[in-house]
């Protein structure tokens, strides 16, 4: 249902999904799904378990091949594999943390920095009048740059003092922030957040809300999948609801909150106002 109300602050269209259908054998996981996310916009994708939310993410990320329909990022076909995400300016967090337990906090975030799109932070080419640099020197420059950007990303999320610690030594909410820092360090133009509030308490969710708002204010498009409905309704500019692989609602949070089809999909669970 494209063409729904778009907030005035939203910019150019970053993600467009049209007629997305995904079948696994005889099972239709998604059917004719339309979805838009503009620069600077936060869009929530919600629905009951098994509605197809993660399948949408996987189709955008090249992990699932659509049976029909199109997915475009900044007007171009979405990457056909996850290795194309960073060059396309896309970053994603996972339902599971996806961290490397044998690495430090800093090293985990450096992984995201080293995957930066287009190599634009890799030190740049040898310019006029500059002596050609060896491969070893370029690699060292790239690692130094990655470490510096990783430290800044950790500082932005109040984790700088945790940089040298094994990531597994951190409490779960801080590990979630490390995973988010790893996505943000690549400076994405489209950020996909898969259940970012899962397992968090009220204070951590409030902090997450503020972080996502700051990211969107830079012009980054944000699409999030989340079961914490009140969090979604309070944060998002638009909300898209899936049920059995189909879009049943797409609009402003208040309109979606009142939609009878959404109430039925959630088995009568009332969505309370914040």
Question: What labels would you give this structure?
Answer:
single chain; 274 residues; alpha/beta; Rossmann fold; 2 domains; 6-stranded mixed beta sheet; 4-stranded antiparallel beta sheet; 32% helix; globular
Give an overview of the whole structure.
By secondary structure, the chain is an alpha/beta fold. It has two domains: 166 residues, Rossmann fold (3-Layer(aba) Sandwich), CATH 3.40.50; 71 residues, no CATH class. The chain is built from eight helices and ten strands. The strands form two sheets. Strands 6-7-8-3-9-10 form a six-stranded mixed beta sheet, sandwiched between helices. Strands 2-1-4-5 form a four-stranded antiparallel beta sheet, covered by helices on one side. A hairpin with a 2-residue loop joins strand 9 and strand 10. Helix 2 crosses helix 3, helix 2 packs parallel to helix 4 and helix 3 crosses helix 4. The radius of gyration is 19 Å and the shape is globular. Pfam families: ABC_tran, BCA_ABC_TP_C. It comes from Cellulomonas cellasea. GO terms for molecular function: ATP binding; ATP hydrolysis activity.
């Amino acid at each position: 249902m494209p063409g729904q109300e778009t907030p005035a602050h939203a910019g150019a269209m970053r993600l467009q999904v049209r007629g997305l259908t995904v079948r696994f054998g005889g099972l239709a996981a998604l059917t004719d799904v339309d979805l838009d996310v503009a620069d600077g916009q936060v869009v929530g994708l919600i629905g009951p378990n098994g509605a197809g939310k993660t399948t949408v993410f996987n189709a955008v990320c090249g992990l699932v091949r659509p049976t029909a329909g199109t997915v475009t990022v900044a007007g171009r076909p979405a990457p056909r594999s996850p290795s194309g995400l960073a060059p396309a300016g896309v970053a994603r967090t996972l339902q599971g943390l996806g961290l490397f337990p044998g690495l430090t906090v800093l090293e985990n975030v450096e992984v995201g920095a080293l995957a930066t799109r287009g190599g634009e932070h890799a030190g740049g080419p040898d310019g006029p009048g500059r002596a050609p640099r060896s491969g070893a020197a370029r690699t060292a420059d790239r690692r130094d740059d990655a470490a510096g950007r990783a430290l800044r990303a950790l500082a932005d999320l109040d984790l700088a003092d945790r940089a040298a610690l094994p990531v597994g030594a951190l409490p779960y909410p801080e590990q979630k922030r490390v995973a988010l820092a790893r996505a943000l360090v690549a400076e994405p133009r489209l950020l996909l957040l898969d259940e970012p509030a899962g397992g968090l308490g009220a204070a951590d969710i409030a902090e997450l809300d503020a972080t996502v708002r700051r990211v969107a204010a830079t012009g980054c498009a944000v699409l999030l999948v989340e079961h914490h409905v009140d969090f979604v309704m309070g944060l998002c500019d638009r909300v898209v609801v899936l049920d059995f692989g189909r879009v049943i609602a797409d609009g402003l949070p208040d309109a979606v909150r009142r939609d009878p089809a959404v109430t039925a999909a959630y088995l009568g669970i009332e969505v309370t106002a914040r």
